[in-house]
């Protein structure tokens, strides 16, 4: 599989985003990676990309801030052939719906939904101006199907919005040669569980997975990169579960 474009990956300092950057470099892509707080993590990923012989640019970008998203795209050369992995997202501590505050909901949706919309908006605008139609993969979650009751219903709802957004945007831009798809990871070995206050979540829930194990970020990354590649040239408006059957 060959990827000979520049891939913008939001939230690439760890987890699935970092795995995408490292694997994509091995497939020949140059990388622009964003982070919100973990500069050291982003630097480590960029070093691995460069060690693979590809270029890596790092940008601090809180995608809940529209001005930072605009600044991110202003720094991308206008003629760059660009693909997007719309990965950045957050989760809050486990809670029931009756415990969720307006502030929490605003934060979750400002990053996971509004931020993702705006990043994709700017990516499409860039693709049109550059004259090089690219591909977008949005990172959703199987939580969008399962609901995550008594855990993260707000996160699940935000990812359900990403599913619908993926389909609608795909319809809008397909005639221009821009493909838009999504992946829904299941139980994956990343830091997001600890950030949600449940570091043991994988061990507690893995018995529900038909394959009886958690997934690795690299397994999700391979699916994402396939969707970006020419091997998926007839695939758009699709949502691919990477969840071991759950």
Automatic annotation (TrEMBL):
A GO molecular function annotation here is: glucose 1-dehydrogenase [NAD(P)+] activity
Ordered alphabetically, the record's keywords are:
Oxidoreductase
The record's annotation in Pfam families points to: adh_short_C2
Q: Does the keyword Thylakoid apply?
A: no
Under Gene3D superfamilies, the record lists: NAD(P)-binding Rossmann-like Domain
PROSITE patterns on file = PROKAR_LIPOPROTEIN
Q: What is this protein called?
A: Glucose 1-dehydrogenase 2
Q: What species was this sequence derived from?
A: Thalassovita gelatinovora
């Amino acid at each position: 599989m060959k990827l000979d474009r520049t891939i913008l990956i939001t939230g690439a300092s760890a987890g699935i985003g970092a795995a995408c950057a490292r694997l994509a470099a091995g497939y020949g892509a140059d990388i622009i990676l964003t982070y919100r707080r973990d500069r050291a993590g982003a630097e480590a990923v960029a070093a691995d990309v460069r060690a693979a012989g590809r270029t890596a640019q790092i940008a601090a970008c809180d995608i809940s801030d529209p001005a930072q998203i605009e600044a991110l795209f202003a720094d991308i050369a206008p003629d760059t052939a660009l693909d997007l992995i719309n990965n950045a997202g957050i989760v809050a501590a486990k809670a029931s719906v009756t415990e969720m505050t307006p502030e929490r909901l605003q934060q979750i949706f400002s990053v996971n939904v509004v931020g993702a919309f705006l990043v994709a908006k700017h990516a499409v605008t860039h693709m049109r101006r550059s004259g090089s139609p690219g591909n977008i993969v949005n990172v959703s979650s199987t939580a969008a199907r399962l609901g995550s009751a008594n855990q993260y219903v707000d996160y699940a709802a935000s990812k359900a919005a990403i599913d619908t957004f993926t389909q609608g945007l795909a319809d809008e831009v397909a005639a221009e040669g821009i493909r838009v798809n999504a992946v829904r990871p299941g139980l994956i070995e990343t830091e997001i569980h600890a950030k949600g206050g449940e570091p043991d979540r994988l061990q507690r829930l893995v018995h529900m997975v038909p394959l009886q194990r958690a997934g690795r970020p690299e397994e999700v990354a391979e699916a994402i990169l396939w969707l970006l590649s020419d091997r998926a040239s007839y695939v758009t408006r699709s949502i691919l579960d990477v969840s071991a059957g759950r």
